[in-house]
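This week, work through this protein record:
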Amino acid sequence: MGKKVKPNLSMTQIINMSMGFLGIQMAFGLQNGNASRILANFGADVHELSWFWLVAPVTGLIVQPIIGHMGDNTWSPLGRRKPYFLIGAVLCAIGLVLLPNAASATQMMAANVLLLAVIFLAMMDASINVAMEPFRALVGDMLPKHQGTIGFSVQTILIGIGAVIGSYLPDWLTQLGISNVAKAGFVADNVIYAFYIGAGVLLLSILYTIVSTKEYSPQEFAEFENGKEMVEEPSKFSDIFKDFAKIPLLMKKLGAVQFFSWFALFTMWVFTTSALATHHFGLSPQDTHSVEFNKAGDLTGKLFGYYNLWAIPFAFLLTPIAKVIGKKQTHALALFCGGLGLISMYFIKDISYLKISMIGLGFAWASILAMPYAMLIDAIPQKKMGVYMGIFNFFIVIPQIINGLFGGPIVSGFFGNYAIGYVVVGGVCMLLGAILTMILVKSEDETPKEIEEEIKQVHF
């Protein structure tokens, strides 16, 4: 059987197969903008927040490689990746409903509210990871490699739309008359109803992708692989460790860049609410329930909405910019702008101008979600697309785990619980990521021979 080339997909087909990311990122946006606020409502101190946020990267570290490995070896009537979309979406929707209602559930179950909230947060995070990883692998499965950049850019656009909706939703509901204030120990109604809406959109968007997208069969993949069947022998979970030992050189280089990029992002997600409350609203670090604190929480959601909104046009521009200056130069420029954006939050005291900081972060976020994967896709063999996308996630979650362990004590010990200083540290880390991109990563004009040599190192 001769080797066939994957056909180009139309823009409609690319959008259809990525639509579920809109719902996933809406859930992620709701979590990023409100998890610290919810945990603070339930009694968590600022120096404890990063510890509670460890749930997300730890679940990602465990779940994504396993789901990627399972997806690589799954051939069901529903498809290769789609069963995991569905399972993850259903479980995540349940978590979205339960998390803001942890206080009410505590009264019924006589449990510790923070412990219960962390359990629901872990359920949400694990489910998001179950649903998210297969979408990355699906781009590699379905698209010819020259369409990889546009595929990940479309995902970034849908991620931006979903995140904007998720970030703004609590504030929009407040404007409709739903209360954004709750008694001590409970979550405001605007946040609770926003999570309900997020659960519904998540399920609908995932179902749309499942219905509208047909995955390739094992026989079709065999034709793309010179007649070599995709599933030749029983796979073992131990293969994940063998695959990790054989990761391509390009993945290692991009992993170093990812470390500093995601360290900065985690800092922003965890500590922005506290930073705004203390630095811009003049509150004490102990104030986690007042009307002003909840205003800071609403502002965090709106600012996160701004950077996701800016990520949408930047996602459209990534491909033409990369064609002019190169992929790695584009990514380095984006990280540089993002670092300046985070640092500028310290110097901009008027909250109405903080949206300016979000422009650079929007550029960085768009590139972080697309360019590393577009650079990496050429170095990953088709047979291992899922597991290597999951392993690449290690370089995303490990910096978050390190930050989660030490970020809170640093904020407490070095910054007196005033988190704005640590947000600046995050900006510096993003600048370091830009520098490493230019130093470590090869230009995309690598010869095919060089890429082939890297692929030969990969375990099959």
Summary: Residues 227-233, 444-460 have pLDDT under 50 and may be disordered. Residues 157 and 312 are 5 Å apart (CA to CA). The two ends are 21 Å apart (CA to CA). The chain is about 75% helix and 0% strand.
